[in-house]
Amino acid sequence: MRSILLVFGQFSSIAALLFGGGWQLPWWAWSLFIIGLLVLAWAVLSLGRNNFTILPDPREGNTLSQDGIYRFLRHPMYTAVLLCGTGVAFGAPSMARWVAWSVCVLVLLLKVRYEEGLLTARHPDYPERMKGVARLLPGVW
Questions:
Q1: Which of 12, 112, 118, 130 is 20 to 30 Å from 74 by CA-CA measure?
Q2: How far apart are CA 64 and CA 134, in angstroms?
Q3: Is residue 83 a contact partner of residue 107, using CB atoms and an 8 Å limit?
């Protein structure tokens, strides 16, 4: 149930970011949005078909991906959402977008903690293997 609530919160905030205002974005906001889409594409290609799920629960028989962008980030799809959302929320601001961006950040932080707990339970070596790999932003967290 917790997984479904986290995904619902994530996708609801993404919808509010996308539809909560206009799309007259300055160049820097479009740049963030496009970088976010590129990060998302790289993550999907790097993850592997058996590992992909929108839920934070690892799929049965999953493996720990350390290829491609996963060498640098533990949760690059969440980073992609944050990059796109930041571009939209701050490039064409509205109260709805700022609230949605704040909710999205909170939900993704909760989702990271929850997902990492599940991965550690499934793969006890997860914390050791992830040392030196940023969660969302290299050099930050």
A1: 12
A2: 15
A3: no
**Start-to-end CA span in the chain (Å):** 27
Note the pTM of the prediction, 2 decimals. Answer: 0.93
Q: Is the pLDDT of residue 35 over 80?
A: yes
pLDDT for 129 = 86
What lies within 8 Å, CB to CB, of 87 at 6+ separation is 25, 28, 29, 30, 31, 32, 33, 36
Contact 82, 102 (CB under 8 A): no
Alpha-carbon distance 136 to 73, whole Å? Answer: 6
Tokens matching residue 74? 């533990």
Cα–Cα distance, 57 to 122 (Å, whole number)? 10
How do residues 39-64 score in pLDDT, each as one tens digit?
999 999 998 778 888 899 988 888 88
